[in-house]
Structure formats: structure tokens, C-alpha cells
Predict the structure.
Amino acid sequence: MWRKLTMLILSILLFLCCYPIVFLVVGSFMSPGELQGHLAAALTKDSGFANWSLLPLEPTLRSYVNVLLDLPGFFVMFWNSVKMALGILLGQAIVSIPAAWGFAKFKFPFHRTLFMLYIILMMMPFQVLMLSNYLVLDKLQLLNTIWSIILPGVFSTFPIFIMYNFFRGIPQSLLEAARIDGATELQVFFRIGIPLGSSGIISAMVLDFLEYWNLIEQPMTFLKDKSLWPLSLFLPGISPANAGAAFVASVITLIPAILVFFAGHDYLEQGIATMGIKE
Amino acid sequence: MKRKLIKISVLFLGLMILFTILSRAAYNLTVPRVTVEKPSSAQIGPVVEGQGTVSEKQDLPVVTVEGQLIRSVYVTEGQAVDPGTPLYQIDLKKLDENISKKQQQIEAIDLQNESAQSARDVARQAKELSQSQAKADYDRAAADGDAAVSQAQNDLTQATEQYQDYKADPASHPDQSEEELSKAVADKQAAYDAAVKSRDDSLYNAQKAIDSANIDTSKDTSIQQADLNKQQLQKDLDKLNALKNAKGVVASPVKGVVTQVAAKTGQATTGAGDILLADTGAGVKLTANFAAENKKYLYRGEKVAISSQNTDPKIADKLKDLTITAIADSGGPGGPMAAGGSADAQGPADAGNGASLANGGASADAKGGSGVTVTINLPPDSLDMGNAATVKVKTDSKVYDTCVPYGALHKDNGKEYYVLVIENTKSVLGKELVVRKVNVSLLQKSEKFAAVDGISSTQEVVTESTRELSDGTRVKRKEE
């Protein structure tokens, strides 16, 4: 009885969590007229309330054709998002993994203070750091270039924090044994540290991809040229005329995130489980 | 599972690459291609052009005697005729009847004149008789009166002598007293006075009779009037006889073109223009219409050039340097000529006569009204009647710094002029060209260029496009 009740409550919650996705997909197959009828009250100054239907009355692929064939700007932004996300992930792989390993395995002076500083910086929202970032990028003449997004992302502290915990879980005795066997620090890092910490690394990459794939504030602040904007800025203003395109763009934007999540959710679960057991 | 995910991811990226290419290809296909030019300086004069039609200079109405029955009409409108070409034929039977009627009318007039003359003679004779009789009466009254007066005079003298004798010697008349002699003198005096008065009265009355006999009778002009009528009838008769001699056929007096056929078989001739001819021998003119805004460039004597399609080069040379002979308001009250019209019909030309009056075009200067009509006399053997032609007025030109090709100038709902210029803009797809609408004011225009104000010489103006453009439309240059 309780089990069934629990299942029911969880199902309701599941539906509520999944409903935005359903809303998105259904809307992408609606005709412009139907969308206008449902959303006019929300998107224009019309009085009344917006409404919705679970299934489209006039299902059509018109919005998909419009976005995929008539809007080349959408693909420019898509590839900008891909460049930004992959660039940041690659940079983080080069910078953050060694940094996390260093914090986890080496006791250098002020390492605790520095790590605390990293945590504080990690917790600060973008709005706090925006102005200082802007000034630094302006001095470096990187404003209005894709590097104004990639470089701050590469040197983000969040993946260091995630990977630090995973690297800390690697037994010190294993590393000592490797050193005794004649392994250098680099060999220890590449052959023991990275393989054993791979779940943490991939978890951090997945979370970072989800974060940087949906970046809005930094591109709006640091990029003036629309040709550099990512997909998240494709339709900053939704009106009844472009609602269909907005829905389709959102569905397509969702697909890479879903694919990356499904590819890495095992590692995420594994990492969370490992952290939980350890603690 | 992972392999599946990797495959799906690769497929997804592959599809995105494919759609990227397809969407760019579709976009490039739909983007209009434009040809642009920068404004340049050019020498432009106002283009003053009008369209018109060649028509005859003179019209000739062909008339014959009124009231004849038309038997056949041989020509139609637009037909060319030569001198002597039969135009229409009168019914001979009816013609003979009319001739006979005229002759009878003339005879009747003659007889009337005879009677009138006879009456006049009788009246004259009667007058002469009364005059002579009145004179005779006067003479007789004078003679009788004089005799009576003379007798009375003598009696008076005698009585007066007797009285004077008595007075001198009363014994000369013993049997009469003084009173008796005095009374006798008085009586004789009275008799004398009475005789004089009687004579005067008789003479007065006789003179009155003479004066009455001398009064003129009222003037009788009936014979002269009848003569005038007879002359007209004789003329008509002569015309009818001439028509009869021509067997009732009315021929063209000149070489020309039939412009109007009012004569119809079975109807009577009107005595006015039964048929209207355009006298090609008198030359042709071109009547052209111009817009009201061009009035200021048009005046008599202004040089013009005329062009027509399919014109021989030699004839085209003749038409390059002509002058305007007349200008009129077209559309206003009393405005005379419409383009192509032949409104200046002249004096009548009787059949077999051929004389006609010449008249120029309208002579009113262009004032208000919706347009202007100009007339230009054409040289002989240039254009034919009915030809359409374009008249260009030679005007002064001036150098303008900002000139665009005329095709680049557009009008906004018939109100303001505008041009389309391209400018660089940054979009998602990078630098693109978009079209912007710029309002300009037109300073002057010609067939090829338009001088405008409102754009700079560095802006590139769209002169041609593969699609219709509006403000903000993305475009590409044609050479790309």
C-alpha cells in the first residue's frame, strides 16, 4: 500500500519534472496558428490566460523545416556552442585535472588557503565577477572574440573541486608503491591518477558540458558580434511569429545535452556513490 | 549502450552538418542579387516629351446642292482619294425633278414681274392724267377769276368817276344824289373785293388739286426682289445642270484622305459637308500633348525633335530640327485641339471647285488647364497621317554632382522619391549587405539619369535586382 502510494507520488513528481520536455516537444510540432492561439495571452498584450494541449491539433513539420532549412543563423550559433563547449572542456582537461591532482596529492605551502580561495571563487555568481572579467578581457583585447568565453571557462574552479574529491579517494599507499617501483610523478599521474580518477574527471566534464552548453550571461556580456553568439542566444525574444522556431531550436539544443548526459550518467552516479560511501 | 550513444551522437552531428550546408545553400538561393552604382556627376537637362499623332493641316468639306437624293456612296473613312475620284452619286431622276422645279420657279418669277410692271405702267398713266386735269382746272380758274376781277375793277372805276364827277359838278348827274353815288361806289368796291376773293379761292383750290395730283406713290420693289430670287434660283439651276452634266457624280476636288462620311444612301444632301476630306496636298501637322508641368519649357518657335517608329533615316533627319507653331491649353474651356484631332475644318469647297481657306493652328497661349497641346508643321514627304510620333523639346542642361541611373529612382505611393542603398551590417552570418530605403528629393531628370539630393557620393545605390526589395532586405552583389 505504502509502496503503491510512494510510486504514485513519485510518478506525479516524475511527470511534473518531465512535463517541460513534453511541452517543448509537443510545441515543436504545432502549427504557428495553433501556437498563437495557445500562447497569445503570454506573448502579447492580450488579456486572458495562456493554455496548452498535450497533443497538437494541427501537427506539422513546418517549424522544423523553417529552422533546419531557412535559418542558416541557427547553425552558425550551434557550431559556436560546440566550439565553446569543446574548447572549454579541452582546456579544462589540460588545466583542471593537473590542478586537482596537485591539490589532492601534494602538500605545498598555503595549499589549504588556496583551495579555500578556489571554493569561494566557485561559489561566486557570474554577476559578481562580471565587471572584473570584463576589464581583464578588455585589457587582453579578447573582448568580442570566442576566447573571452573559452579562457574564463578553462580556468573555472568547479571541475577542480569535483575532481579533487575523486583524486583524494585514491589510496596514497598505491601511489607510494608505484614510486617505490620507480614510477615518476608524471607516470604516477598519467598511469594511476587519471585512470583511477576517470569517473570524477568524466563527471566533471559532463557537468561542465551541461553548464557551458547553456551559457547565456557571458556571451551576452562579452560578445557583440552576433556571428559569435551561441545557441542559447538564438532567440532572445520570443513572439507569436517565432514561437515555433523557438520550440524547435530548444528541442535541437536539448539533444546534445541529453546525449552527453546519457553517455556520462553512469560515471555521475558512480562518483556520487563513491563520495557518499567515503564520507 | 555506449556504442549506441556514440553512434547516435555521430549521426546527430552528421545531420547537423548536412542541414548546415542545406540551409546555407537555400539561403543563398533566396537572397536577391543586386547591381549597385555610386552616384556620379552628370549633365542633365529636363526631359520634356510629348506624344502625338500626325493629322492633316486642312480639312475640306465636299458639298453639293441641298436636298438632292443620294443614290450611292463610294468612299469610306480613311480612304485615300485623288482629284476626280467619285465620292458619291445623286439620283438623276430626282435631279431632273429638281431642275424642272427650279425652271418653273424662275418662270413664275418672270410672270410675276410682268404683272407687276404692267400695274406700274397703269398707275403712272393715271397719275399723269390727274396732273394734267388739275393744271387745266387751275388755268381756267385763273382766267375766270381774272375776268371777274377785271369787270369788277371797271365797274368800280366807273362808279368812282361818276362820284368824283358829281362832287366836282353836281349838275353832271342830275338824276342821282350824292348818297346814291356814294352807295354805288361802295357797292362796286364790295363787288370788286368779292371778285378778288372768289378768284383767290378758286386758284387756291385748283392749286391744291395740282399738289394732290403731284404726290408720288409708294416705292414698289417687288420686281427687284423677284429678280434677286431669280438670280439665286438660276445659280442653283446652273449647279443642278452641272451636276446633271456630271451624271450626278460628286468627285473629290483634291488629293486627300476621307476623314468623315456624313452622306448616306437614301438621305438628302445637306448643303454642308456631306463628306470631309483631309487635303494632303496642303501638308500635315503633328499635334502632341504634354504634361502640365512642362508648360514652362514650351513656347512658339521652340526647337523640337520628332521621332517615330520605323522611320527612314532620311526622313528622320528632316524631323530633327522643327519648331512649335502653336500652343494651346488642352482640357480647359475653349481649348481647341486634342492630339490627333483635325478640328480646323475650313470653308466649304463645292464639288468641282476645290478652293478652300487656309487657317493655322490654335493660337491661344497655354495658361491653366490639365495639359498643353502643341502643333508642329511637318515638312512634306515626312510622316503620314495617323502616324504616332514623339516630340522632344531641346532644353538647357546643367551639371549635377549626385546623379543616379534613372532606373534606381523609385516613388513611394506616388508621393516621395526614394532610392535603395546597400550598407554593411553584422548579423549571425557575419557581415552582410542589407538594403536601406533613403528618401531623396529629385532635382532634375533625363532619360538616363536623375539628379538627387539626400545621398552621399560614397553610398552605393541599387540599380538592378533579381527580386523585389524593401527596407532591411538582405542582398548580395551580383558578381558574387
